[in-house]
Amino acid sequence: MKIHEFTMAPNPRRVRVFLAEKGIEVPYQQVDIGKNENRTPEFLAMNPMGRVPVLELDDGTYLAESVAICRYFEEQQPEPPLLGTDAKDRAWVEMWQRRMEFGLFEQIAGCFRNTHDYFKGRLPQVPEYGNLCKQAAIERIQGLDGELAGREFIAGERYTIADITALVAIDFGRLSNIRIEPEQKNLARWYQAVSTRPSAKA
Amino acid sequence: MKIHEFTMAPNPRRVRVFLAEKGIEVPYQQVDIGKNENRTPEFLAMNPMGRVPVLELDDGTYLAESVAICRYFEEQQPEPPLLGTDAKDRAWVEMWQRRMEFGLFEQIAGCFRNTHDYFKGRLPQVPEYGNLCKQAAIERIQGLDGELAGREFIAGERYTIADITALVAIDFGRLSNIRIEPEQKNLARWYQAVSTRPSAKA
User: Fold this and answer.
1) pLDDT for B122 beyond 90
2) CB of A64 within 8 Å of any CB in chain B?
3) The CATH number of the domain covering residues in B87-201
4) Which residue ranges make up each domain of chain A?
5) 3-state secondary structure B131-142
6) Could you tell me the pTM of the whole model?
7) Nearest-CA neighbor of B108 among B75, B85, B140?
8) Is B94 within 8 Å of A67 when comparing Cβ atoms?
9) A63 and chain B: CB distance < 8 Å anywhere?
10) Which of residues 95-134 of B touch A (CB under 8 A)?
């Protein structure tokens, strides 16, 4: 078993943090997106979408999509639960994970893809759209500050995959100058808590 | 228990088809997005994101996000399995569901939101970005035709949530003139199979 990934990209970090929380160690193999190593025929045979990470299982299965990889490991090793504890809680955690994914992570990624020099000349960029994404991310961050007034973590009193998605998104946002504001005290308290867990270094 | 939804919108249809496949009946209450009924204080108290569908449970919990709602019902009534049958298969189905969601559904929705008259004056539109979404959707549809050469359904030999997401996306694509091309025989065969299941009318 190994994971094909790129340390600098945000999606692979979601899986690394998830595995660190579980205490699971998997060998990593780097795929340099900056050198288009994710566009080679060999890589596209593993994942036709050209995205990292990809989990290679011992039976030769290639499993892509960060959250699908996380779900695989959650079932292999349920403790500590990061995707919820019973039917209702699993749906609740999925709701918050998806809110963080669509409302925050995808907006921050959309801003980066459409405005940052890293992709200039490599992807078609629409800066006007990137700026709308940035605005949406800033509004979601403000909303999150209010939501965190009443609870310790994003989906409730327990650390979950929703916190991982939000942490990785917010750290990724720095590259686009999207940040937690000083007056967002609840969010700052949450960020302090999740970013100092040992898993955050993964 | 009831579901707050809008029959004309694509995300609620994903849940309706899912429930029809399970044979589960839940009362529906309409929220007219065209009249901004999803922006009222009452609706935002249920779902601060202002999105449909929202599942209202008998204990007063409001569960949003289509796939989270589907997961809730999958656990309440596992048969027929639409999210996979064991740990590896559940991850595999999630991978394909997410590929259909990000590569197809979100691209078609991005095209509609940014180019269609329905949202003119209601949302900031960036037609140049919408056209990129359309191109990405057309390429993913072409990829899907190749993938369906070797199997009956999107995630393998069994109908799953990945087929539901793709069916709803492709039907929604008509509004943006995104269609299955006559030469895409595998995709046409799949579409014929999934769109004639009784659940497709839900």
Assistant:
1) no
2) yes
3) 1.20.1050.10
4) 2-76, 87-201
5) HHHHHHHHHHHH
6) 0.97
7) B140
8) yes
9) yes
10) 95, 98-99, 103, 114, 124, 126, 128-129, 132
Q: Is A54 on the interface with B (CB under 8 A)?
A: no
A-to-B residue pairs, Cβ atoms closer than 8 angstroms: 87
Average pLDDT, chain A: 97
CA dihedral in degrees (B148, B153, B158, B164; nearest 10)? 150
- Whether the pLDDT of residue B50 is over 90: the answer is yes
- Fold classification of A2-76 is Glutaredoxin (3.40.30)
Q: Which residues of B touch A124 (CB under 8 A)?
A: 132
What pLDDT, on the 0 to 100 scale, is given for residue A5? Answer: 98
Residues in chain B: 202
Q: Is A28 on the interface with B (CB under 8 A)?
A: no
Other Cβ atoms closer than 10 A to B177: 9
- What are the angstrom distances between the C-alpha of B180 and each of A91, B148, B183? 33, 13, 8
Question: pLDDT tens-digit profile of B150-159?
Answer: 999 999 999 9
| pLDDT single digits (tens) B135-180 | 999 999 999 999 999 999 999 999 999 999 999 999 999 999 999 9
The verdict on a CB contact (< 8 Å) between A68 and B91 is: yes
